[in-house]
Amino acid sequence: xxxxxxxxxxxxxxxxxxxxxxxxxxxxxxxxxxxxxxxxxxxxxxxxxxxxxxxxxxxxxxxxxxxxxxxxxxxxxxxxxxxxxxxxxxxxxxxxxxxxxxxxxxxxxxxxxx
Length: 114
What we know:
Elements (H helix, E strand, L loop, with lengths): L37 E7 L8 E5 L5 H15 L3 E4 L2 E5 L3 H11 L2 E5 L2
């Protein structure tokens, strides 16, 4: 099933004239405080042509706040990356640096993997 069809919970067509599609795109209304966030930092090489990236997952909040945090981490590491789908991708292996930066911001951080 394509990602586009998942938004309507499997309903393709309805003969009911009063039927309303219910979308499952429930984005959090506000961002949790940093001390309440439980972020995971890991090294990832899957589907990236063997290139290593640092992956930060577990962020709960608005898309704008995720992008602000991602931009701050990319600037401090001096590399590129992206922030989408509730995860931040930093190009290269910057696990230790990202962890110290997030701890300094007040986030709870755990390192996943070796």
